[in-house]
Amino acid sequence: MLCGVVVWICGGLLSSCQAMLATMEESQHAAERQAQVDKEHAEAEVVGTIDKGKEAFVSQRFNDAKDSFEQAVIHYRKQEGNSNNLGKALNNLGAAYQELDQFERALDSYEKAESCLRGCIDGSDVRVELKVVLKNHAVLLRQLSRYSEAASMDDQADKL
User: Fold this and answer.
1) Which of these, 35, 54, 86, 144, is most buried using a 10 Å CB contact count?
2) Distance between CA 15 and CA 158 in Å, rounded?
3) pTM of the predicted model as reported, rounded to 2 decimal places
4) Phi, psi of 89, deg, nearest 5
5) 68, burial (CB in 10 Å: exposed 0-12, middle 13-18, buried 19+)
6) CA-CA distance, 50 to 8, in Å (whole number)?
7) What is the domain partition of the chain in residue ranges?
8) Nearest-CA neighbor of 140 among 150, 154, 151, 155?
């Protein structure tokens, strides 16, 4: 009779442990799903910020564009493994700085964009983005009368 009670108690504990483990696994899956939803929401928000920046840039509201692109850069710097989007945001930021005659900041943004994009140059879309960055950088260098550097940037872009 004592053996039967011990088996019944152990069986009850085992069932309780299995139920608790299942609940913990379910909670973990729910947390992972929520994290994915949060990530997708943040990505949608930053895409909206970039679109707002592009709209401001086209409307020649360069300070507004700069502010939007700065927010996008901050967002993408927080994410690991997203060098392509960070490179695009830095390129846009460089263009806004250039229009605001903040040439040193523009140069810095283009250089950082180039570095990001060279780090993930595995697809043709990244090559196109890198080519755009190099051409924008070349335009700025010519604007600053740095013609030999501009020619070098153009050559690098043409080789992609």
Assistant:
1) 86
2) 68
3) 0.74
4) -65, -40
5) buried
6) 63
7) 18-158
8) 150
Which homologous superfamily does the CATH classification assign to the domain defined by 18-158? Answer: Tetratricopeptide repeat domain (1.25.40.10)
Tokens 């069986």 — which residue?
11
Paired tokens of 90: 């830095």
Residue 124, token pair as written in the block: 């043709």
- Tokens at 126, concatenated: 């990244």
**Overall size of the chain counted in residues:** 160
65-68: long-range pairs with CB below 8 Å, 24+: 65/92, 65/96, 65/99, 66/93, 66/96, 66/97, 66/100
Q: Are the CB atoms for 50 and 70 separated by under 8 Å?
A: no
pLDDT in tens, the chain (160 residues): 545 444 555 556 666 667 767 777 777 766 667 656 656 666 667 778 889 999 999 999 999 999 999 999 998 888 765 678 899 999 999 999 999 999 999 999 999 999 989 877 766 678 899 999 999 999 999 999 999 999 999 999 999 8
Local structure of residue 85 (DSSP, 8 states): H
d(CA 12, CA 16) in angstroms, rounded, equals 6
**φ, ψ dihedrals at 24, nearest 5°:** -65, -40
